[in-house]
Amino acid sequence: MNLAVDARSLVKQFGSVRALDNLSFTVKPGEIYGLIGPNGAGKTTTLRTICTLILPSSGKLDVFGLDVVSQAAEVRKILSYLPEESGAYPNLTGYEYLEFMAKFNQKEGYDIKSMVNEAVELSGLGDRLRDKAKTYSKGMKRRLLIARALMTHPKLAVLDEPASGLDVLHAYRIREIIKQYVKKYNITVILSSHNMLEVEYLCNRVSLVNEGKIVIEGEPKELRAKYDSENLEEVFAKVVGYA
Amino acid sequence: MLKGFTTILLKELKELVRDPKILVPMIILPLIIFPVLSLVMGYAVNSAEEQMQKSNLLILNNDNGEWDQTFIDYLNQIMNIQVLNNISPQQVIDQNLLANYNSTQFMEIPAGFSQNMTRHLNGESNITTSINIYGVFQGGGIFSDLGSSGLVVYVNAFNRAIAPDIVLTTQSTIINDQVQEGVDPSTLSVLMMSQSLALPLTVMIMIIYSMQIAATSVAMEKEEKTLETLLTSPVDRFAILMGKVSSTVIVAGIAAVTSLIGYSFMMKSVTMGIPIAGDIDLVTLGLVPSTFGYIMLGISLFVTLLSALALAVVMSTFSENVRSAQALVGYIYPLIFIPSMALMYLDINSLPMAIKTVLYAIPFTHPIIASKAVIMGNYSIVAFGIIYVAIFTVIIMYFASKLFSTEKILTAKLMFKRGPKKKQKD
Hints:
The structure holds two protein chains of two kinds. By secondary structure, chain A is an alpha/beta fold. Chain A has helices at residues 43-50, 72-78, 94-105, 109-123, 138-151, 168-185, 196-202, 220-226, 232-239; strands at 5-14, 17-27, 32-36, 58-63, 66-67, 79-82, 156-160, 188-192, 205-210, 213-218. Chain A has a single domain (5-240), classed as P-loop containing nucleotide triphosphate hydrolases (Rossmann fold, 3-Layer(aba) Sandwich), CATH 3.40.50. Chain A has nine helices and ten strands. In chain A, the strands form two sheets. Chain A has a six-stranded mixed β-sheet with strand order 6-7-8-3-9-10, with helices on both faces. A four-stranded antiparallel β-sheet of chain A has the order 2-1-4-5, with helices on one face. In chain A, helix 3 (94-105) crosses helix 4 (109-123), helix 4 (109-123) crosses helix 5 and helix 5 packs parallel to helix 6. Chain B has two domains: 48-190, abc type-2 transporter like fold (3-Layer(aba) Sandwich); 196-411, no CATH class. Chain B is 65% helix and 8% strand. Chain B contains 17 helices and six strands. Chain B has helices at residues 5-18, 20-54, 67-78, 89-94, 97-100, 113-121, 146-162, 185-224, 226-231, 237-272, 291-316, 322-329, 333-345, 353-361, 366-376, 379-404, 408-411, and strands at 57-61, 81-85, 105-109, 129-136, 167-175, 178-180. In chain B, strand 1, helix 3 (67-78) and strand 2 (81-85) form a beta-alpha-beta unit. In chain B, helix 11 packs parallel to helix 16 (379-404). The A-B interface holds A 12, 14-17, 19, 37-45, 48, 51-55, 73, 76-77, 79-90, 101, 104-105, 145, 148, 158 and B 220, 223-226, 228-229, 231-236, 406-407, 410-411, 421, 423-426.
């Protein structure tokens, strides 16, 4: 069986800083996989490497059997990336932004329209999509971008802090949508988050990244049991030595 | 004192002074630009004065009386003169005597000069005499007209010594070896100022303004993190770069056309004020560009704007946000200011080879050189400029395409000081 993500001994060196240090993990198709870890641990670097934004210094990374270095253009056709704290084009309306992004994935007018309509529904922004993105709150922008990331039904969705900036209710709605989409369209998700509740609720498996390495990996239930903890937050604290 | 004012002021000052992107363009560069400009202006004034001192004044003496020699003796005390007897202004031009005597102007003492002087001094105060001054229109820098205005001053000083308003002056201009009687070189000075100032200033403002806009195109994407989304979309990365540059090309094209429309309108309105017979073609006189000249000038402006915009796009990839991108392109401004302002005052051909080479190497100099060259019909130098700037642009675009095809588009940053490197943000 093809793995959705197969990372082997990934190293990423930025000058004297080793952001990824022999990092290896796998994600199965249809799985929601979470990366957790302290700031600067290498989570975003891992996600950016999967998305072909940065090249690994050494090691091998395949996405659905495609090499992220030599087959980068092919990889980009099957994934969708949601960067942390990203925005939209301030002078485009939300609708225009969705249409602009849809055109890269669909060629026919009807398909573009149907893709955008789905994103309109997903975002829940209604008439506000006719307003310029610069008038949106942080939460509204996030909803627009999540809709953009999922409207293409990618084989792999790479979500960096998907619910960041969202209030409790909208965060809850987004998590429900992610779960639905994974089932309905057989999407694989790899996400990073500092919200342990979110990770525990969404992810089939999680790995704790620290100093560019995977320290522990497993199902949330397993990890709680292994570290005799009530939740992933406690597991996290115990592993990094804070508890 | 406002509570907390000093604390906020000190913090703001620390932030501003510690940011090299602000410190260098706002504080250090002006310290360099203005001394350089003062040197340029000083050089321009000195060379105009030296030229005036070195050159001879030709005096065409067509009067054989007693006062013509007095007037010649008076001038001889002030400047180098060469006297030619019984010769007309057109003969001077036809026999190329100006070049032979290293002169750019001459003065004619017409027949009857002494006779009228004597009559005036004998009580016929309504009788005056005249001196005809002829200057060659050169169309150089701002100070290139110093000579002819000086001669009028000397004649007035002669009047003060003899009798007020006894000698009047008429001024004519030689344009492309043709005498334009009664055309005062000072009326042409407006045209010269237009040529020397208007286009360099327009080019300077247009390039700076366009660069500021272009610099934000990539920086805005980085700041909003839309670039990351775009780079992970199924779109050719070269298409992203070309899309950005092409949009600026369209803006540059429109800017070049509107500038030329404005410039040709200004040249028309300025030349309308010149009292030259209506049937004389201003293009052949070398006062305004021909249609072909305007086209060449337009192409020169266009490729220069394109090079500036491409450079701004590349530079903005080295910044993390709009503010730092705009500050970063500020480093290019001296390369725009100095040639533009230098060529307002100087004729590039009169400069030493080293300075000339440096100016030719700067792409932003070429439309200014072209603006003067198309008037003189020197199209080869304009064509050279267009080819040079086009090659420069292609190199910049190649460099940009390399940046866009690698992770450097996201990770490239200009390092201003050495120190411990920050860890990659998670």
